[in-house]
Amino acid sequence: MLHDELTLKITPTTTSRIDSVDWDNLPFGKVFSDHMLVMDYKDGEWQQPEIMPFGKLELHPATSAIHYGQSIFEGMKATKDAEGNVLIFRPDLNAKRFHESCERMCMPTIPESIFIDLIQKTVDLDRAWVPSKDGYALYIRPYMFATDDFIGIKPSDTYKFIIFTCPVGAYYSQPVNVKIEEYYTRAAQGGVGRAKTAGNYAASLYPAKLAKDEGFDQLVWTDAKEHKYIEESGTMNIVFEIDGKLVTPAEDADTILRGVTKRSVVDVAKSWGIPVEERQVSVEEVVQALREGRVTDAFGAGTAATIAQIAKIGFRDELFELPDPSSRTLSNKIGEFLNDLKAGRIKDEFGWLLKF
Ligand SMILES: *Cc1c(COP(=O)(O)O)cnc(C)c1O
Predict the structure, then answer these.
(1) DSSP 135
(2) Are residues 117 and 38 in the same domain?
(3) Domain that holds residue 262
(4) Is the CB of 101 under 6 A from ligand 1?
(5) Which residue has a Cα nearest atom 5 of ligand 1?
(6) Over the stretch 261-306, which tens digit does the pLDDT of each residue have?
(7) What is the pTM of this model?
(8) 261 CB less than 6 Å from ligand 1?
(9) Is 214 a member of any domain?
């Protein structure tokens, strides 16, 4: 819990770095805006949050997050409309997911309205860093990690919650080639796959590297028990169009990250009257449909790329080529709709945007 009387402290920078940014060349995640928010947890409560100049942290070598992985994060984007309003896409879903990650990882929660408010205030101070160019955005990275300087396995008593932001360029995602993975796993039932927690990503590096060596960009994860069901792709949720229906793995399994982008794709498709099936999706069914040419679209959905079309899918010794990406109605139409919405070019009929 936060103290009732807790107010946000703001210490603005005296030397903005904004003029030194090469706005036409923004590598993803390498350029950082002027400020960050830091809020510490100790003595059983959150302390006063402070927005301060972006800078380095000093950490004790025994900082427990580094050793034992009590560490979670979120990722979202702010964009600007033609009038200069900042728009943040569905932050309520990120707040909820962060809350769930906190609980699963035995970390103190932050009330969802406060989480959103702290993000809004952090972005507002750096609103000059929110690009207005089409496809550009300010990537927002809230995260929390355990800070006890203690060697031993137990939930930490102290934590740091930080928000920093990165202006990012248009993510021209080339269609990707993916491989259905039948040995390595991302998440097992009862594990932490649903939480956006650091170790999940460390664990995926090695299998992803092996797939790269075989010429694939990413893996399609399958269930840990039998490798019979499709879960997600890399760090994106996966969506297929089979026989004119949108088919995507249901999220009731606690092995799939509940993506905001995938949720939005499903919501938009439903509102357009496209049949949607969120259910268990077996590898066999997808492979059979691929062999018969009934998979007319397939893509990953995630905040970074929004929609990443899949060009080829590898399964054992077979390599299936999907229809020409530019000809695909579903992914192109939904991708365009979401980008138009984030740029404020169309009416926010779903009420998804936080505008300020
Ligand atoms: C973050 C993430 C996604 C995508 O979620 P969005 O909210 O759409 O960005 C999907 N899968 C994994 C494993 C992720 O970490």
Answers:
(1) T
(2) yes
(3) 176-335
(4) no
(5) 259
(6) 999 999 999 999 999 999 999 999 999 999 999 999 999 999 998 9
(7) 0.96
(8) yes
(9) yes
In this structure, is residue 355 part of a structural domain? Answer: no
Atom of ligand 1 nearest to the CA of 75: 9
331 with 262, same domain: the answer is yes
Q: Are residues 185 and 140 in the same domain?
A: no
- Our answer on whether the CB atom of 236 is closer than 6 Å to any ligand 1 atom is yes
pLDDT digits (tens, 9 = 90+) for 8-36: 999 999 999 999 999 998 999 999 999 99
Closest-CA residue to 96 (of 108, 82, 112, 81): 112
Q: Which atom belonging to ligand 1 lies closest to the Cα atom of 94?
A: 7
Specify the number of domains making up the chain: 2
In a domain, 194, yes or no: yes
Counting every residue, how long is the chain? 356
Ligand 1 in reach of 181 Cβ (< 6 A):
no
Contact predicate 158/41, CB 8 Å: yes
Q: Which two tokens stand for residue 53?
A: 């100049």
Task: From the CA of 196, give the closest atom in ligand 1.
Answer: 15
With a 6 A CB cut-off, is 302 part of the ligand 1 pocket?
yes
Q: Using the atom order of ligand 1, give the atom closest to the CA of residue 97.
A: 7
**Which of 168, 202, 224 is the endpoint of a domain?**
168
Return the percentage of the chain with pLDDT > 90, whole number.
Answer: 94
Written as one string, the DSSP assignment of 145-177 is EE--B--SSS--S-EEEEEEEEEE----PPPEE
Comparing CA positions, the residue from 131, 134, 168, 235 lying closest to residue 29 is 168
The pairing of beta strand 176-180 with beta strand 306-315 = parallel
Give yes or no: residues 51 and 125 share one domain.
Answer: yes
What are the φ and ψ backbone dihedral angles of 122, each rounded to 5 degrees? -65, -45
Q: Is the CB of 259 under 6 A from ligand 1?
A: yes
Q: Tokens 């170790």 identify what position?
A: 199
Query: Are residues 237 and 259 in contact, defined by beta-carbon separation less than 8 angstroms?
Result: yes
What distance lies between CA 74 and its chain's CA centroid? 6
C-alpha span between 250 and 38 (Å, rounded): 35
